[in-house]
Specification:
Length: 336
């Protein structure tokens, strides 16, 4: 094989790089350098190098394939105008940041831990044991929203191997009694429990029975007028109605919003307080405009009280799906 030895090669005008039209082969141990660049325009394989290629810059207008590992040193930035595709993993030391907004990041601050930051502060953390914290970097269980401490509210969704799933709510007080209120599903009881001040107050059993652990307070609606002036009274007003003016003659009371609320086999009760003034008396009960025959206590309709207030109680049972499928039980008593 013949060789040409020279310190440099230039083009025929002595002002640029030579052109190797059919490629060039460089054997091991021989470096190929060019201060003005090397233009290789071979058709199949532009150049075949069995040694190292050393240069300060390089420009490629076509594809570059690397069959082995591409190793870099002292590279501070990689700029791509298109999509970067990794066919396996992308390994980073700490975080992924948002271009032009470097205080917004996805971070990996510790082993098996993942966080999200905005405005330079951590907002979300998933710990190595799967706990998720929003607004806290030390979630205690399941999902925790907010952190303990003075003035901070805390919400925790938690489960346990004993079949207890809880929504725990705290006011940020210090000490061991963080969660003053909770809603809990207890699998062993198959029941829902509701608590305030760290104590159970209300329970729904597996059969649907509701158990109140303390007294029950119910609102009443003060109409500020007479039944004669306001015969229509929606269920949303409540189950106790107070009419304050003097009534006269036979009166009709229409309970609205009942038919769309009750299903067959359900019931609702109302207490109605009127001032009879010797003549005012309720004789007709309607459910959403449909008159229902009243089954009166004692077998007959009561008469009007001479003074004080008459208190009527009506128990309404839905016995079907039609607008008239109701049974109404009524009773009245006078309180002077």
């Amino acid at each position: 094989m013949s060789r040409i030895r020279a310190d440099k090669f230039v083009n025929n005008a002595a002002n640029g790089a030579p052109q190797l039209t059919f490629g060039a082969e460089v054997v091991a141990g021989v470096g190929l350098t060019g201060a003005g660049g090397i233009n290789i325009t071979g058709i199949a394989t532009a150049a075949s190098f069995s040694g190292n290629i050393t240069g300060t810059t390089g420009t490629f207008t076509g594809n570059v394939s690397v069959g082995g590992t591409l190793t870099y040193e002292d590279v501070t930035n990689i700029d791509s105008v298109g999509i970067i595709t990794a066919r396996s993993n992308v390994s980073i030391a700490d975080k992924i940041i948002h271009t032009g907004d470097t205080n917004t990041a996805i971070r990996f601050p510790a082993a098996d831990t993942f966080t999200v930051e905005t405005a330079g502060s951590e907002r979300l953390r998933i710990t190595s044991d799967g706990k998720m914290g929003v607004g806290t970097n030390a979630p205690v269980d399941g999902l925790q929203v907010g952190s303990h401490g003075s003035g901070n509210g805390t919400l925790v969704l938690a489960s346990s191997t004993s079949g207890v799933c809880s929504v725990l709510m705290g006011d940020g007080a210090t000490g061991t009694d963080y969660y003053r209120g909770y809603i809990q599903y207890n699998n062993s009881l198959d029941a829902m429990l509701f608590a305030t001040s760290a104590g159970e107050r209300f329970r729904i059993t597996s059969g649907g029975t509701t158990i109140f652990k303390a007294g029950v307070a119910e609102k009443y609606y003060n109409t500020g007028t007479t039944l004669g002036a306001q015969p229509n009274n929606p269920l949303s007003y409540g189950n106790v109605l107070l009419f304050t003016g003097n009534e006269s003659g036979n009166k009709t009371i229409n309970f609205t919003g009942v038919h769309a609320t009750l299903s067959n086999g359900e019931t609702v009760s109302f207490t109605v307080i009127i001032t009879p003034n010797n003549s005012g008396v309720i004789t007709v009960v309607q459910v959403d405009g449909q008159a229902i025959t009243i089954k009166w206590s004692g077998g007959s309709a009561p008469s009007a009280g001479s003074s004080g207030q008459d208190i009527y109680t009506f128990q309404i049972l839905k016995t079907g799906t039609g607008t008239s499928d109701y049974t109404v039980f009524g009773a009245a008593a006078n309180y002077a």
